[in-house]
Amino acid sequence: MSNGKITTAEIIAMKARGEKIAALTAYDYPMTRLLDECGVPLLLVGDSLGMVVLGYSDTTHVTMDEMEHHIRAAARAKPRALLGGDLPYRSYETPTEAVASSRRLIAAGADFVKAEGGRAILPQIKAIVAANIPFCGHLGMLPQHVLEEGGYKIKGRKDEEIVALHADAAALAEAGAFAIVLELVTPPVAKDLSQKLAIPTIGIGSGPDCDGQILVTPDLLGTFPWFTPKFVKPKLNAAEEMRAAITEWKRTL
Ligand code: KIV
Q: What number is the average pLDDT over the span 126-154?
């Protein structure tokens, strides 16, 4: 840590100390400020914002301009937490494009960038790291590939998927990623990967044995009540409380 700001080294040190890493998504100023006040060390302006904030059917519609807009809003909260931003779909097709897109997100206020994929995007990841931009990997179910894959599929059930996950995770760590999000990976495979890697795994729907856990904050708080993933147990039904408060206010007019 320096000046209280969480660094990538601190996130890695948390794993070394056996301390669970809490991570949540944040898409604007108030939520970033609130989550930071709660001491969440890792925040992500995820492209999930396309679905839970912008109303798109999936994350492939999110643009670079939209990511920059939301990262700027989140960064205005000046969080102590390490604040990441997702590289949107098709913004990292080549190493040159990956670095240019990453620089835009960093200029908007992100402390690190995240992109989906392993060996398939290794030249891009190496270029990002060589440009001194902190990088977080994302393996398992890749939401930006939902259309090609025909749905959100759990990964790690088939032998070839397990082999690929291990090879991808090792390649990301070797390339200099400081952490890897594991999304919808079968819990035993996620546990095995977490034990083998020196860098932290941050699970989402991948069982309890990852080094940290990330959730889409509206899923946790119930502010997007129209769909909640099966693996999330909301801690609050905020939508219901908001409906009640609004209805009550209308009644008193
Ligand atoms: O887009 C997102 O919010 C994410 C997290 C769920 C990991 O990628």
A: 97
